Amino acid sequence: xxxxxxxxxxxxxxxxxxxxxxxxxxxxxxxxxxxxxxxxxxxxxxxxxxxxxxxxxxxxxxxxxxxxxxxxxxxxxxxxxxxxxxxxxxxxxxxxxxxxxxxxxxxxxxxxxxxxxxxxxxxxxxxxxxxxxxxxxxxxxxxxxxxxxxxxxxxxxxxxxxxxxxxxxxxxxxxxxxxxxxxxxxxxxxxxxxxxxxxxxxxxxxxxxxxxxxxxxxxxxxxxxxxxxxxxxxxxxxxxxxxxxxxxxxxx
Length: 252
Fold this sequence. Notes:
Layout: H1 3-17, H2 29-36, H3 40-53, E1 56-58, E2 64-66, E3 73-76, H4 83-87, H5 98-105, E4 110-119, H6 123-128, E5 137-146, E6 149-159, H7 160-163, H8 180-183, E7 190-198, H9 202-207, E8 216-224, E9 230-239, E10 243-246
Parallel strand pairs: 3-10
Antiparallel strand pairs: 1-2, 4-5, 5-6, 6-9, 7-8, 8-9
Helix pairs in contact: 1-3
C-alpha cells in the first residue's frame, strides 16, 4: 500500500464508520500533513483518490466535504403514467403532473423548472418518433427538484404538427384528466422503454449538481397511439445515487 493509499484508506474508514458524517468538512491539507507526516503531494493524491471514488466532493470555494446522501425516490414506471391514474385524479394529493403527485405522496415537496422550444431532436429520439432527418419537434425540458434538490432531468419530445396550439406549448406545469395528449385526442395506448446506464455529460452533471463518479440511468419512453403512431418520446436522466426504479410485470 502506498502512502497515498494509506491516507485514502484511513479517511474512507472514518467516513464509513460515521466519524466523518455526510456533509462534514475534511481536515485541511495542512492538518493532514501534520497528522500523517507526509508531503503535500502525497496528501493531495490520497484525497484525490476519494474524490474519484465519489466519497468526497469539492465545495464552492475552498474545502473538501464528505459526500451527502440523497434520500432515494422510488419510480414505479409500471403505474406512473397509467391512464387510470390520470383519469381518477382529483383535486389535491393526486391532481396535476403525475411525477409531482407521486413525490407528494411520498411526503416530499416537488418542483420543476420548465422550458419549451422547437428543436431538432437527438438522433435516437428522431428514430423512435419515426421522423425524417431535419424534422422539428416540440421539446418540453424539465429540471425536477425534490425538497429543493435537483433529482432528475425529463425532456419530452413531440412531433411539432401534433401539439401546436395545445397547452404542451406552454412553459409551465400542465395537466388534464387522462393526460394532456389524451385531452386533445391523442391517446397513448402503449409504451416502449429503453434504459441504459452511463456516466453523465458535463451539462447533466452541472444541472443535477452531481459529485464525481456518479452514474446516471437514461430512461427513454416512447408512447404510441391506437394506430401505432409514435406520439411522444420522453428522456429522463436519473442519478444513480438518488433513485430506485420499480417495474411490475405480469408473467402472461
